[in-house]
């Protein structure tokens, strides 16, 4: 009988710092370090290079370990589809370390499959709802901050000292916008934008 191959998958977004906790959990489960794949991307879809590379390795003698279901993905529909591909098409098992009920090695009968499917559906639904709620809270927070007068984006650079004179020369037709911008150390579009603001004042 062929030896069971153990693989691990980790995902961290660029803002998250829980990479070590995932790696420790996978290593403690017995996954060799060389078989751990990691993407630094969001979980909104499965367009991830390391995940795709891992998927090609899986077969009927493989077990895929993830620390928690949201590390695999957060999109309800896509998560269920990938679970089906891994367990049905590839014939591999999945173990979700933080949720012992999501271990497809347990009870390979109809009841075991049914329990796994129900728990997966529930957890993936919760994971997607959490993602939607986070985005909604972020949008509400930004809207509230704007109402308070908080400005987003890079602050405007101060207008150079020679701007007034250069602006007069430009409006008098002595120089063109590109020459004026160069004299002020700006791009042409920035000079024109600042000139319009200046004229409004």
Any descriptors?
single chain; 201 residues; alpha/beta; Rossmann fold; 8 helices; 52% helix; elongated
Structural commentary:
- The protein has 201 residues and is of the alpha/beta class.
- It has two domains: 5-134, Rossmann fold (3-Layer(aba) Sandwich); 163-200, no CATH class.
- Helix content is 52%, strand content 10%.
- The chain has helices spanning 19-28, 49-57, 69-72, 76-89, 110-147, 163-171, 177-184, 188-200; strands spanning 5-11, 36-39, 62-66, 93-96.
- Strands 2-1-3-4 form a four-stranded parallel sheet, sandwiched between helices.
- Helix 1 links the parallel strand 1 and strand 2 (36-39).
- The mean pLDDT is 82.
Give the neighbour order of strands across the main sheet.
2-1-3-4
Give the beta-strand count: 4
CATH architectural designation of the largest domain: 3-Layer(aba) Sandwich
**Main sheet properties:** 4 strands, parallel
Query: Number of domains in the coordinates?
Result: 2
Helix share of residues?
Answer: 40-55%
Seen as an oligomer or otherwise, the chain set is single chain
In short:
By secondary structure, this protein is an alpha/beta fold.
Chain-wise SSE layout:
Layout: E1 5-11, H1 19-28, E2 36-39, H2 49-57, E3 62-66, H3 69-72, H4 76-89, E4 93-96, H5 110-147, H6 163-171, H7 177-184, H8 188-200
Helix pairs in contact: 4-5, 6-7, 7-8
């Amino acid at each position: 009988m062929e030896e069971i191959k153990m693989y691990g998958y980790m995902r961290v977004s660029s803002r998250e710092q829980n990479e070590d906790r995932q790696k420790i959990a996978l290593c403690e489960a017995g996954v060799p370090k060389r078989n751990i794949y990691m993407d630094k991307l969001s979980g909104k879809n499965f367009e991830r290079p390391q995940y795709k590379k891992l998927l090609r390795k899986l077969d009927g003698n493989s077990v895929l370990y993830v620390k928690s279901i949201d590390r695999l993905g957060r999109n309800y529909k896509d998560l269920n589809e990938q679970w089906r591909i891994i367990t049905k098409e590839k014939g591999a098992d999945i173990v979700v370390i933080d949720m012992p009920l999501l271990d497809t090695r347990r009870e390979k009968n109809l009841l075991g499959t049914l329990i796994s499917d129900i728990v997966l559906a529930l957890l993936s639904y919760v994971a997607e709802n959490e993602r939607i709620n986070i985005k909604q809270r972020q949008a509400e927070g930004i809207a509230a901050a704007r109402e308070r007068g908080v400005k987003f984006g890079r602050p405007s650079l101060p207008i150079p000292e020679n701007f007034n004179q250069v602006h007069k020369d430009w409006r008098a037709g002595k120089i063109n916008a590109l020459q004026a911008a160069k004299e002020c150390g700006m791009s042409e579009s920035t000079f024109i934008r600042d000139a319009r603001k200046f004229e409004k004042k």
